Each structure stands twice: as structure tokens, then as C-alpha cells.
Amino acid sequence: MTDKRQQMIADLADDLQPTKPVGSAGPAALWLVFGLIFAAGLAWMDGPFRDNAFQQLLLSAQFFVESALGLVSVALLIFSAFELSIPSTHSFMRRLVMPLAALAAWVGFYLWGLYAPALEPSMAGKRHFCYLQTLLYSVPLLLAGLFWARRQYPIHGARIGLLLGLAAGSIPALVMQFACVYIPAHILQHHILPGLSIGVLGALAGALWLKPKK
Amino acid sequence: MAVLVVRGVYYVVGNFLSVAGSDAVHGLFDDRDSMQTDKPNTRWQRDEARWSSWMAASQRGDQSAYRELLSEIGDALEAYLQVHFGRLSILEDCVQEALLAVHNARHTYNPKRSFRPWLFTIARHKTIDILRRAEGHKRSCDALLAEPQDGAHQQDLSRMIDGAKLLAVLSEEHRQALALTKYQGMTTDEAAKHLGISEPALKARLRRGLKQLQQQWEQQAL
Question: What is the pLDDT of residue A51?
Fold first, then answer.
């Protein structure tokens, strides 16, 4: 060991402060819960949810599965994003492919719904500017995720940003499942598409901003 | 079908919402890092147990445990980098920067998980980062000529990179670019002239070579 290294170790040890291990599952769960409350709260303040939207979960198995899959994919996306922010020998397949596959399955349900919708399509619950609401509600969620990730040791900035963006965009899209009209073509164009575009924004932000502290 | 879905969602979401116990969630994403403690290598397991407990103690503010930890892992990192890069001129810089990165990232270490994957991921990332940033140390002709020319001290390029396991995976042009700039200490301008190519072309080779190194190294770690 060189003298310089010895001195450095002594300085770091003398400077040592207690620190609490942060973990990823807890913060991910908190982000998910508060994200849902935030998006649902803002949507509610703008106008009531679609009549009988929650009862429809019990009346239609397909609607229930669609909604559940949406929730599961958001959970997988955010958990993977927070896990990737912590150094480890991550399995690329598990960290990226599983959440993206769940997201693809969720979107797949709406594509199937173009031929066989879960509910009778109607204009009940129509919201003006639902496209804009989905985009705007996503941004604070994305920023919160980026701020958290930046305080860890994010090596794969673009991948983390992509997952954060997709999770942040999917939460308002999921809320719109109950707050806005149920027409699969409308959902794909005005809820899912803006949600997915936040993924692109997140990837760019992650590539530029998520770097380990020097 | 609905019952199965409800059970599945309950299992996944219920575990996510359980801040205290997340073992089941981690079980869904069983990584190699949690499996490496089962490796039948007693020295590995002893190191793992010792480093992990010292790190946990350091997180509580134990300075003497931290000093022991940094000393040991510093030596381990030096040996690790020597195996992969041979006699790299900036090896000591890489080790010190990695130790500093460990210090800054210590709050991210989870004592319930393996320590080695966490440590070596940081070390790999830091090393590649330093290699990207390192400027060639300009050495004058006089200094080169002033060195004794006997075999023991001669700055033989092939000896310097001998044993650099990781460089073997690179193509000849990438290996040459890295060897001239990072081992022999040439600037990019000097190395480009030596190879008879333009400086932008050399920089492109360095970039691609480092990217390939990083990918190979991460693959080996999995």
C-alpha cells in the first residue's frame, strides 16, 4: 500500500459519519403509493371520475385484468429503476425485460380491446385535455424518481431514466382508466401514448443527468 | 382466472408496500450477487463475511472497522485490476478513486446483500471512467533516453500489458490505441502519429475500445 493511499484511508476514516442504508424496495413502494395518490388527487380535483368506474372492476374480468396489469407493470418499472440505481451485478434480463414485457402486455390488452373491448365503449366521463393531464401529472413523478436515483450511485443513467419515465407516465394513464372515457382507441392515443413518451424524456434526462457523484 | 390474478397482484403489490420485509420481492429478482455467497470457495466466503460486517459497522460510524475495510479492499482492488489490466500506469489512481467512490456510495450498500458485487461494480465503473478521462503523460525524448537500457528496466510495451486479461478481448487496433496512451503514456497526438492515423481516428478507437472493455467486463461479472 502506498503512503498516499494510507493517508487517504486515514482521512476517510477520520471523516466517517454514520449513514443509514437506503434500500430500494421501500422507496419504490412509497413512490408508487404517493404517485397514485398524487395523480388520482389531481384528476379528481379537475373533475369527477367516470360513473361506476370502480364497480366495473367487479363486472368485467377483462377490465379487472387490464387495470391490475397496469398496476403491476408500474410497480415492476419503478422497482427495477430504483434497483438499477444501486450498484450490483444486475441481470439485464430481469431488470429491464420483465417490466417492459409487463408494460407491453398491458398495452396489448388495449390493442386487443380495439376488437373486443372490456367494457361497452362510451363517452361517459369524457375529460377535456386528458392528453395534457397525463403528460403534466407525469413530470413531477419523473423528477421525484430522478432526484432519488441521483442520490444513489446510478451507473446506467439512460436505462434508469427510461424505466422511471415509463413508470411516471403510466401512473396517470392508469388513473385515466377510471377517470376518463373507456374507448380503447382513445385510451391508446390520449393516455398510453403520452405516458410512453415520458419514457423517452426520462431516458434523455437520465443519460444527461444521472451520473454517480465524483 | 380472476382469483389467480388477484393473488398475483396481492403478492407483488403487497410485498412492495411492505417497507419492513422485502425478501420476497428480492426473491422475484434473484440476482447472481445473492447467489455468489454460495460459491464453494472458503477464502471468498471469509472475505465476504468480513467485509460485509465491517461495512455494516462502518455504516454505524465505526472508524476502526472502516479503516480495516478500506485497507483490505484497497489491496484486493489493486490485485483485481492488475489481473485485468496488467501494469497500468494509473493503477494506483484507479484504486484510490474506487475507494473514494465506495466512501461516497456507502449508503447504498444493503447489509442483507453480498458485498463483493457491490464493491466490484463500483470499481469497474470507476476504472473505465478514469481510463476515459486519463490524459497521456507527456514524456520527453530526453527522459526516455535517460532510462537505463538494460532488460530489467526497459519500458517494454508488451511486458507492461502482459497478463492484462481484459485487453486480450479487444481487436488489435483498439488494443494498440489503449496500450500506447494508457500504458506507454503517449498523448493522443503522439499515439496517432506513431500509428500513422489522424488524432480523431485514434480518439474514436479509444472510445470504441473502452466501450468494448466495459461491456466485456460487465459480462464477465454476470
Answer: 83
